[in-house]
Amino acid sequence: MEGSLKELSQYRLECSQEALEDAKLMFQNGRYKNTLNRAYYSIFHGIRAVNALDGYDSSKG
Known about the structure:
Blueprint: H1 3-28, H2 32-53
């Protein structure tokens, strides 16, 4: 597997983890709409990370 695909996947996984941490903070502060938004993007970036490993890329997940 190309190193660049692994790097891309790692970057997207980091974005996913950051969005999840943001979601946790929003939830703890009662910001539920923002929690849903950050949780959605955590999942979105996580799926894109896995797809990158298969050589598939789409801006729509």
